[in-house]
Amino acid sequence: MGKAVIAQIVSGLGNQLLEFGTAYAIAKRLGVPLDLDLTWHAKKERAGETGRAQELTALIPESFYRRTRYYGPIDKRLDRLRKMLTGRETRFGLPIWDANPAELEEADAIAAPVYARRVCTDTRIMAPCLPELLPAIRERLFAARMAPREDRAFVHVRLGDYRTPEVAKGFVSLGPDWYGRAMRAYEEITGPTRWVLCSDEPYDALDMLPGGFDVTVSQATDTLGDLAVMAAARGGVTANSTFSLWGGLLSEGGPVVAPEVWRIKKRSPILPPDWVLIRDG
């Protein structure tokens, strides 16, 4: 069996889609298959925690990757032996490419299959594949969670783990002032807009939005449901969240407004050039 690019799939759905999309673009440029390493999620499930790889595999048609893989004892022993002989760390026998903080130029320099590890937030890398990927994801998403297309825009507010001290200290806090400026920037382009609020804590999030906007709360009950609502919208306002980023990519017909700065110390994502970026403060 020939070598493939292998994507490590970890964390929540937004990160998973970036991991997949980046590795898929590299594999397609090299003309080799793509495999998905789901070991991280399998370990979570064995520990009695929630593994979420099924969210990704529910959205990505099987034609976009060759197979799923799991890093077993034999793979570990072989990679240890390779390191002893060559001094190089590998996974599944492939050189490891740390995707974050990678940029387009680094990805373009990859000349042979790699094991792509960590989340790449330079959306330019997967941009050539998005015209192929996004319709396929939308089709699977709407088959899984019905969200009729309406003339409305989404506004996404990420709370949940962003409220915990260990996460909050790394991310810019987006409050009512930022959301007000972002929603006004959207309406300056489109005119008065009907908004649908998507959030992991929707009614707390509603209190964070400024007054003066026509906002209803998404009735979705899970991650795929909220993503379907955002994908069915005509553009919208994203949070500093990779899940939110995919809501913007999957939406059609309207502008997408996003925060320019995501993290307090780390580099912010390189977002699509046609998005409207609003700085905090």
UniProtKB/TrEMBL annotation:
Q: Which organism is it from?
A: Tropicimonas omnivorans
Q: What is this protein called?
A: Alpha-1,2-fucosyltransferase
Q: Which domain of life is it from?
A: Bacteria
Keywords for this protein: Glycosyltransferase, Transferase
Q: InterPro entries from the entry?
A: Glyco_trans_11
